[in-house]
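Summary for the lay section of the report: proteins are chains of building blocks that fold into shapes. Here we show the chain for Protein C inhibitor and then a coded description of the shape we predicted for it.
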Amino acid sequence: MSAMKTLYLADSFPTNFGDSAGALKQINDYVAKQTKGKIVDLLKNLDSNAVMVMVNYIFFKAKWETSFNHKGTQEQDFYVTPETVVRVPMMSREDQYHYLLDRNLSCRVVGVPYQGNATALFILPSEGKMQQVENGLSEKTLRKWLKMFKKRQLELYLPKFSIEGSYQLDKILPKLGISNVFTSHADLSGISNHTNIQVSEMVHKAVVEVDESGTRAAAATGQSSCSGRPA
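The coded shape description reads as follows.
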């Protein structure tokens, strides 16, 4: 426990897995507190054989370097697809922005700076090129964009939005070839003295909120390990 705190700055606390409802509440309350209430009920249930739960989380809050004027936000059309149009509160502001046109990926990118040294990148794929842009996203691509940016006077229209997602990673990761950890073949001896344990559930939740003042975002991943059962 002390090594976790010293080496990884991680918190640790005991819980009574015999009281699954109490343990579940203790873990979920901890995550909700650390993410300022953005991630609630990360875990829906605990395996009756649970011996350990590991969670990690991140919380981000930043204000725009220049905020959008609330009076400029108006209901406008937003094209989810060429055939699907929804009405959204659309923010707008004319200013000098970092801008580039990536002809290889068929998209336009605008950088909107936060106070401090962070910048939000908003990507607008050309019509029908969403998949191409998604496939091309990588650290190398982002670094290239940051070098290519040029300041340009733009009238930027940006939807005010809140979006969240939840993913059952114990269902997704085996499809990517990560499967042993979820079976009796798991080897977790590096993090636990318990023998014959495996990961029974792994979930991930994330939320992003963007408005006139800035961005708030949070994410958390929870992993429950239990005494092993036959694969």
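Put simply, here is one thing we learned. The CA atoms of residues 72 and 92 lie 6 Å apart.
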